[in-house]
């Protein structure tokens, strides 16, 4: 495991194309557009987060973009991710959707653009061709400098292998449901083999980790919060966690991960939680 003792929110992983990506991102899934998303994003940037993750489907790109503009932090010092939603798969559709996202964010470029979902229900008979079209558009956006990196989200091995058949540039990131309950070990290993960074959304199991007594015992022993312990575990696994909160105190707390270490015994306890609070949704069976 890499030693994170001296790291901070501004330290980075290096993607396959040598772009630097901060090791923890601030997630905005399920954060309502308007004052809530604006203030939470502003609070995160104020707390030292430099990696902000949003998506067209979250419906909060405008508020996130306004917070970025009002933060006083130089654009080049922030890493901003957004994502293509299911309604816009295909070459022309992706080009148009990307332009809309840029406009809503008020940005000239994003640092990372992802295909949010590999196999939308409405496109299930043509998902591979639609992904290929979207990816071709994303490669063009990348080559034009409007996205500094491109990747995918929720893609399983079969979806990645299909994309590889037509891709000129491999995805640099795969954003996945990753937490102690579901580490998707085979997929994570596949991504690592192909130099695709594993980002962890719902790193706290959408809050369900707080009901697990084993983790609370580890947290109490270390005088840390449950969230801090689990986010540190995520970093130790080489993941890039994307914690989400709308409460300033928790936003700050979730970034304070670099002044303690998990022992082998602590890690073993957390590793033993497989299946305790949910698993990833099969994208081939999702009802959207």
From TrEMBL:
InterPro entries linked to this entry: AKR, Aldo/ket_reductase_CS, NAD(P)_OxRdtase_dom_sf, NADP_OxRdtase_dom
Keywords: NADP, Oxidoreductase
Pfam entry (one): Aldo_ket_red
PROSITE patterns named in the record: ALDOKETO_REDUCTASE_1, ALDOKETO_REDUCTASE_2, ALDOKETO_REDUCTASE_3
GO molecular function annotations of the record: oxidoreductase activity, acting on the CH-OH group of donors, NAD or NADP as acceptor
Binding site for substrate: 116
Keyword Ligase: no
Sites marked Lowers pKa of active site Tyr: 83
Domain NADP-dependent oxidoreductase per the UniProt entry, residue ranges: 24-273
Active-site residues, as the UniProt record annotates them: 58
Spans through the membrane: none
Stated family: Belongs to the aldo/keto reductase family.
Protein name (database record): Aldo/keto reductase
